[in-house]
Amino acid sequence: MLPASGLSLSRRQFAGAMGAAAGTAAVAGCSSGSSKDMDTLQVWGGIPAESGPQAVIDRFQEEHPGTHVTYTRYVNDDRGNLTVNTALQGGVDIDVFFTYGVPNLTMRTNSGLAADVGDLVRATPELEIFLDTEDPKALIDGDQITALATTRIPQMVLFNEDLRESAGIELPTQWTVEEYLEIIRALADDGKYGTYVLPDLARIELGPNYRFTDSGDSNFSHPAFLEHFELAAELIRDGVLYPWSQALARQLEAYQQNNFIAQDFGLWTTAPYSLRFLTDQEEYPHDFKVACAPVPTLDGNDWNTGEYGAFIQINSKSPKQELAWEFCKFWLLESAQDVVKAGYISLLGDVGDDELLDGILGEGAEEFFDVDSFRRTLFEDQPRMHLDTELTAYTEITQKYEQQRDVCWLLERSPQQAIENVDTNAQALIDRFEGD
Predict the structure, then answer these.
(1) What is the helix (H) or strand (E) element at residue 266, kind and residue range?
(2) Among 267, 257, 292, which residue's Cα sits nearest to residue 383?
(3) 230: burial class by Cβ within 10 Å (0-12, 13-18, 19+)?
(4) Cβ(156)–Cβ(185) under 8 Å?
(5) Which residue has the higher pLDDT, 30 or 215?
(6) Ranked by mean pLDDT, which of 16-20, 30-34, 181-185 comes out on top?
(7) Looking at the whole model, is its pTM more than 0.90?
(8) How large a percentage of the chain has pLDDT more than 70?
(9) Which residues contact 412 (CB under 8 A, 6 or more apart)?
(10) Is residue 169 a contact partner of residue 186, using CB atoms and an 8 Å limit?
(11) Which is nearest to 267 in space by CA: 197, 204, 201, 205?
(12) H/E element holding 102?
């Protein structure tokens, strides 16, 4: 059995506490979780089975006769992640699971829920990219590796072409934040807003691990964070950004596609997995085309606000870890052609850019998209990606940040006071975790 992670992780990198899980949430396609058959793998992930995972599983089973894989899909939201956390802690039969977002990754890794696969990665030459500590794509602590990113998730800026053209705006191929602001102001007209939310200005400028100084203290006193809060509050007040009160009430962080398709705003910063909504005319009917532009640059800095993600992990309590590793390796090396239909750009796999683009945009792409703009933005321009590896109190800091962001963008607290509160709370959390 592979060793469990979490017990010897450095406090600086992986501190974070798994919150107590109360109750469970419904999981789409949930299996009984009662099977302990050593030839049956239980895999939990957030992609609908029909969007790629089942095809991967079918091919894996063909190459491993006698092996059966049961896939349980969970919704990647708060309720869905609570279900996964509760199941892992409660000993439900899970062998392989996917984790989305660094806060969830921090909690699960620090709680010892993920096995260390470091030796297995080092023994597999095809997985050499996961040993890179300069441009990390895995969660590495010394010799331990507990999570492997399966995809790059670049952010891109989508334009409603009807609204762009009616406003007389030229589709940008490279642009600055200043130019971006001019465009969203021009789009905010006739009862419509420019966009839902600004791209993360601090991330564009500072890149990975931007929450921390080089010495490991809170970096929220950096002017980039205050600028982001101030600018967003100003644009909400001016009617350029979608009102944050409505964004919270309508859960736009999870359902932004609804308002973009309703043409409430003309510009949307999102990731490739959102494109499936724009080709689903039955559920999301619309008659406008969509074009793509890169995330704008700021003061010469061009970090993309997306990241490496969709981490594959092995349950440290699984009695089937050897078979689980074979499945993980197969997914990493062989799934690219299947999961692209879910908008996933795999890190490995012998699939060309044109095939990836065709898979992401789907059939009849010319009807829905300016295809050349997507090819240029996602593949030719090579977005500068990141993965945070400085994770002290990451989940707790995220919660404090979002609390202060909300009261600021509800225009109930000044940006200066809100970001000062974030900085103070973040430093207190860092000090507390460092002292434990």
Answers:
(1) strand 265-270
(2) 292
(3) middle
(4) no
(5) 215
(6) 181-185
(7) no
(8) 92
(9) none
(10) yes
(11) 197
(12) helix 102-110
d(CA 373, CA 293): 7
pLDDT higher than 60, residue 189 = yes
How far is Cα 184 from Cα 194, in angstroms, rounded to an integer? Answer: 4
d(CA 310, CA 313): 10
Beta bridge partners of 249: none
The two structure tokens encoding residue 408: 């600021």
Sheet bearing 193-195, strands edge to edge? 193-195, 265-270, 156-160, 290-293
Can you name the residues that pair with 369 across neighbouring β-strands? Answer: 290
pLDDT tens digits for range 51-87: 999 999 999 999 999 999 999 999 998 899 999 999 9
Report in angstroms the alpha-carbon separations of 340 from 22, 52, 106: 35, 7, 26
- Encode pLDDT of 403-416 as tens digits: 999 999 999 999 99
Strand bridging mode 156-160 / 290-293: antiparallel
The owner of tokens 């802690």 is 89
Give the Cα separation of 109 and 106 in Å (integer).
Answer: 5
Query: Two tokens at 62?
Result: 């063909």
Beta strands in 65-195 (DSSP E): 68-73, 96-99, 138-141, 144-153, 156-160, 193-195
